[in-house]
Write a structure and sequence with these properties.
Layout (H helix, E strand, L loop, with lengths): L10 H20 L17 E5 L6 H12 L18 H8 L5 E4 L8 H11 L9 E5 L7 H12 L5 E6 L8 H4 L3 E4 L5 H12 L3 H11 L3 H9 L1 H10 L2 H4 L3 H37 L12 H42 L12 H9 L3 H19 L4 H14 L1
Parallel strand pairs: 1-4, 1-5, 2-3, 3-4
Length: 403
């Protein structure tokens, strides 16, 4: 399976990245040692790339596939094969996250600090140890602090000969102008629901009807669609969220629905932390050689404290993301209601909730639906500004009742 197979509906992007990886490979084989973008392949390859697109479109997937194609060592390349075979040692280790010359920068917390970025820029100045390129993939470039972004700017301004930066962000506006002006921009589009459903059938063995409904509900987010297709709990949580428009008939119902939504987000974050935090703590103690019941080795207490700080920040982020997904589901519900009220004949994201959609659509005018959509958007804005989640969601549910 080629590394590009997970990119759904992104043929134009795949063509560009494949051509760039082929040009980069020619540079390596020629042994010129020139920086990417120099010489005869200047129009195809460059030292810094910015992947943008709507949530779930596959920015990180595209960047990872490109990193694998840059490290591909398939013997078919000499015969004109496509970089990124998916089977060679280079592709396999990149996709597994264990390639020595590919560094993944994942944001567990709410931001990426300047210290981490300075370490990356220093690493980027070194020559690849065994691979063809030294690749640094930042999967949330929009979470860089101002100081971290300025540190990154030095890395992309003065690239070393065999280093490639791959930055991922929701939109080009989320990245400093000084950084994005030095990157090749790739914009991924929202994949069609039919293409996502086809992938779920082929790759995950989902029955066609379940795949179709999950693809519609995922609204172009491939991972979200996959979870809805294969995870019964994800479908149950979504169904609970979509009950809210029917439960806000009185103030008591509004407050109850808000509390349940916030509690569900908290429970999801705690469930993730329970296994992930314990594993990380155990791995850290093992790295320090700590024995059960013995005195902690020197330096371990500080490392554990720093790890706990990151884990707390990650839990906060997870709660926000879970609430964000719920609000997107609620927003899609009211958007479908508005489509019905206006007589639209397009596909509905929540086709499996048609009875509830019709009931809400008949209960009031389109103007009220628009005000409810604005209430959901206002809640998202409040959460982004660190308003207490319960207060923000309660204000939203009361506004949904008022219409």
């Amino acid at each position: 399976m080629a590394v590009w197979d997970d990119l759904v509906g992104q043929d134009r992007v795949v063509d560009q990245l494949t051509a760039a990886a082929r040009a980069a490979g020619a540079t390596v084989e020629a042994g010129r040692g020139a920086a990417p973008g120099q010489g005869g392949n200047a129009s195809l390859m460059t030292h810094a790339w910015l992947f943008t697109g709507p949530p779930g479109a596959g920015q990180v997937t595209a960047a990872r596939a490109f990193a694998a194609a840059l490290q591909c060592t398939s013997p078919d390349l000499a015969l004109g094969g496509t970089p990124g075979c998916g089977f060679c040692d280079g592709c396999h280790t990149v996709l597994a996250g264990s390639h020595a010359d590919v560094k993944y920068v994942r944001s567990d917390g709410l931001s990426i600090g300047v210290g981490d970025m300075r370490d990356l820029v220093l690493r980027a100045s070194s020559y690849p140890t065994g691979g063809r390129w030294s690749v640094i993939l930042v999967d949330a470039a929009h979470r860089l602090t101002e100081a971290a972004a300025n540190a990154l700017l030095k890395g992309v301004e003065e690239p070393s000969p065999r280093t490639v930066w791959l930055l991922c962000a929701p939109s080009v506006q989320d990245v400093l102008p000084t950084i994005r002006s030095r990157c090749r921009l790739l914009v991924l589009r929202t994949p069609a629901a039919d293409a996502v459903a086809d992938m779920l059938v082929r790759r995950d063995g989902v029955d066609p009807e379940t795949a179709r409904l999950a693809a519609l509900a995922g609204q172009g987010d491939i991972e979200r669609a996959r979870r809805l297709a294969v995870d019964e709990q994800a479908r149950t949580r979504r169904a609970e969220v979509l009950r809210i428009p029917l439960e806000v008939a009185d103030i008591g119902g509004c407050l109850t629905a808000a509390q349940r939504l916030v509690d569900t987000a908290k429970a999801d974050a705690e469930a993730l932390a329970e296994t992930q935090d314990a594993r990380e703590t155990g791995d850290l103690k093992a790295a320090y050689g700590a024995a059960e019941g013995a005195k902690a080795p020197r330096g371990m207490a500080g490392a554990v404290k720093e790890l706990e700080k990151r884990q707390k920040s990650r839990a906060t982020r997870t709660r926000r993301e879970t609430l964000g997904v719920a609000l997107l589901d609620l927003l899609s519900f009211y958007r479908d209601v508005l489509a019905i009220q206006l007589g639209s004949t397009g596909a509905l994201a929540n086709e499996d909730q048609r009875q509830a959609l019709d009931r809400v659509a008949q209960a009031g005018p389109a103007e009220g639906t628009l005000r409810r959509i604005e209430a959901v958007l206002a809640c998202r804005t409040a959460l982004d500004r660190n308003v207490d989640p319960l207060l923000a969601v309660e204000a939203m549910t009361v506004a949904l009742r008022a219409g």
